[in-house]
Amino acid sequence: MRILIVNTNEKTGGAAVAANRLMEALNNHGVKAKMLVSEKQTDRLTVVGLPPSLRLRWHFLWERLVIFFHTHFSREHLFEIDIANTGTDITRLPEFREADVIHLHWINQGMLSLSDIRKILRSGKPVVWTMHDIWPATAICHLTLQCKNYKSRCHHCRLLPGGGSANDLSASTWRRKEQTLRDQNIFFVACSRWLAGEAKSSALLRGQKITCIPNPIDTRIYHPREKAEARRAYGLPADKKLLLFVAQRATNQNKGMDYLVEACKTLAITHGDSLGVIILGGHADEVSSSFTLPVYPLGYVTSDDELTKIYSAADVFVLPSLSENLPNTIMEAMACGVPCVGFNVGGIPEEIDHLQNGYVAQYRDAADLARGIEWVLGEAHADDLRQQCLRKVAHTYSQSAIALRYVEVYNQVLALKHYKL
């Protein structure tokens, strides 16, 4: 069985991380998997980049220009919208022709247009599409937040000036998506039960097969390291309880930094200098001054080895995101034996078992977030929490378990193709 995984980026972003891990899991379990990306960044033989062309950069810029025009030249939501109006036809590539199954992941920002997706569907190749966010089930957004328009049809979009209109960019993109998906069979996979439920309620995906399979993690790489040694390696204090926050961009409002700052103000009153905060991600220095606790900004790190050491240096991982699918960071922290605290939103409560391997705080409640951190650090038994984290990862997110579930999906779509023939 030959699988072609298609994802815009090779390394950047949670979807890229998840797609890489799935490719490794499949190859480790006898399935021949390759990944096609917009631009290859490593020398891995299992990763293929699109043929070099100035058009690739133009695809990204053209889509942004069209969005920029429709947002009345405002940058506020410029990178929260994708319309898939331009991309690359991959059906002529040898990797596409030799594949038995085409497995789409995050294909935005000029990788594939809706026309390109239509060509893939009409090629006769079985298609699986893993949803890393809600975009495949909406018109233009990756986060619906409180909007429910996608349950009937998208229009009057909150991301457009004045709340959009009945025939705005979201409405026209919705119609194009309808035309692309009409009478086509795609096997959609959501990474969390929450996202699967949201997808099933979308009018766009009505009648499509939708299931839930979480992302895998390689526990040979992500495992507990010696805490004292990890702290010495990064100049972290040995005498403090350390909270860890990780995001690709620490200033991303959706990651809930304001709530972490507020929770730390509460904790500082009772704990003083006995606590500290590690911030991992781009622009970490920019948010450090907002905290009343000591902050240790470590910047942006991509090395798995470094990440496992930093996770292991922490006593609790905190992710106060306002919207999430199934965050890799929580999975990574738990694989390193670190209990987690996060809001009750998206797939977070599927990862964190409340009062067993961490604490699920009430949504947008900084006081309860502080209570959760307090519970992990002061009330729960540290060794019990650690063991619960490791058990959860081994049972639910291991490479072998996830690879076998995807093989079942691939066999189903291949059997359906042969039945139709």
Question: Can you walk through the features of this model?
Answer:
The chain is an alpha/beta fold. The protein has two domains: 2-216 and 399-420, Rossmann fold (3-Layer(aba) Sandwich); 227-396, 3-Layer(aba) Sandwich (Rossmann fold), CATH 3.40.50. It has 15 helices and 13 strands. The strands form two sheets. It has a seven-stranded parallel sheet with strand order 3-2-1-4-5-6-7. The protein has a six-stranded parallel sheet with strand order 10-9-8-11-12-13, with helices on both faces. Strand 5, helix 5 (169-181) and strand 6 (187-190) form a beta-alpha-beta unit. Helix 7 (227-233) packs across helix 10. It is globular. The two termini are 18 Å apart. The mean pLDDT is 94.
Indicate the proportion of strand residues. 15-25%
Structural domain count? 2
Q: Tell me the structural class.
A: alpha/beta
User: Helical stretch count?
Assistant: 15
Largest sheet: 7 strands, parallel
Q: What's the name of the CATH homologous superfamily of the largest domain?
A: Glycogen Phosphorylase B
> Which value, in Å, is the CA radius of gyration?
22 Å
> Share of helix among residues?
25-40%
- What ranges have pLDDT less than 50 throughout 5 or more consecutive residues? none
CATH-assigned fold name of the largest domain? Rossmann fold
Write down how many β-strands occur, each being a DSSP E stretch of 2 or more residues: 13
In a nutshell, what does this entry contain?
With 421 residues, the protein is α/β, with parallel strands linked by helices. Helix content is 39%, strand content 15%. It has two domains: 2-216 and 399-420, Rossmann fold; 227-396, Glycogen Phosphorylase B (Rossmann fold), CATH 3.40.50.2000.
